[in-house]
């Protein structure tokens, strides 16, 4: 018999990925808050803000494109330059966080390996750096399970209080990764014939 948590988590498409993440327990005050978390690293905060501002301006770019294609083309080229800069920042941030590790991620949460157990129900701050899009997100999560696996623990979490922009950026990342996986599988199938 499945629990409500399992049923809720099934409504999101999950992918296996390799991402850099940093886990930190939240204080009681932080766990109760709903405001967007800020990181101590100015570079990570800059990376997050770059993507959030891009997301928030997408509808404006579409409107400009309808009125003046030349200005829209110029703005798209500027956006590409900003994306390249954000990749440089992300590489620097990766050096601070550590090497990417295997995870299972969805819009609803993330499962990862951890060297020590984390109590179910605990509230965490999870810093994610998703490549190659150089997307940096700092989110709240609640631990749904923690099971021994090999030398460590398999920890499952559910995201809490995501902003609309964070949720949509995460959804876009997952859809892009899913499309990339399908494209690679199709290419392998075609090259095998």
Distance between the termini: 43 Å
Under CATH at level 1, the class stands as: Mainly Beta
Instruction: Give the low-confidence spans.
Output: 1-9
Overall geometry comes to globular
Might you state the CATH topology name?
A: Thrombin, subunit H
Please identify which CATH superfamily we are dealing with: predicted glycosyltransferase like domains
Please, how many domains?
Answer: 1
The largest beta-sheet arranges its strands as 1-2-3-6-5-4
Proportion of β residues?
25-35%
Largest beta sheet, briefly?
6 strands, antiparallel, barrel
Average pLDDT score? 83
Under the CATH scheme, which architecture would be assigned?
Beta Barrel
Helix-strand makeup class: alpha+beta
| β-strand number | 6
Report the total helices.
5
Rg on CA atoms, Å: 18 Å
Q: Return the string of H and E elements.
A: HEHHHEEEEEH
Residue share in helix: 40-55%
Describe this structure in words.
- The protein has five helices and six strands.
- Mean pLDDT is 83; it is low at 1-9.
- 19% of the residues are buried.
- 50% of the residues lie in helices and 27% in strands.
- The chain has one domain (14-26, 42-192): Beta Barrel (Thrombin, subunit H).
- By secondary structure, the chain is of the alpha+beta class.
- The longest helix is centred in the middle third of the chain and has 29 residues, at 69-97.
- It is globular.
- A hairpin with a 2-residue loop joins strand 5 (135-149) and strand 6.
- It comes from Pseudomonas vancouverensis.
- This is PilZ domain-containing protein.
- Residues 105-176 form the PilZ domain.
């Amino acid at each position: 018999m499945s629990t409500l948590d399992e049923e809720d988590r099934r409504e999101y498409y999950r992918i296996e990925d390799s991402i850099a993440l940093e886990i930190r327990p939240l204080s009681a005050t932080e766990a109760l808050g709903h405001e967007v978390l800020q990181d101590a690293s100015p570079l990570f905060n800059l990376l997050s803000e770059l993507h959030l501002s891009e997301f928030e301006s997408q509808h404006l770019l579409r409107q400009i494109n309808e009125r003046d294609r030349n200005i829209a083309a110029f703005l798209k080229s500027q956006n590409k330059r900003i994306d390249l800069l954000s990749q440089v920042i992300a590489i620097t941030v990766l050096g601070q966080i550590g090497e990417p590790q295997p995870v299972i991620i969805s819009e609803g949460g993330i499962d990862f390996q951890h060297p020590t157990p984390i109590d179910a129900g605990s509230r965490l701050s999870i810093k994610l750096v998703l490549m190659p899009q150089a997307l940096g997100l700092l989110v709240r999560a609640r631990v749904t399970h923690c099971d021994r696996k090999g030398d460590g623990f398999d920890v499952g979490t559910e995201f809490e209080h995501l902003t609309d922009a964070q949720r949509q950026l995460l959804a876009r990342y997952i859809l892009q990764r899913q499309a990339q996986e399908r494209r690679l599988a199709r290419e392998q199938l075609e090259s095998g014939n």
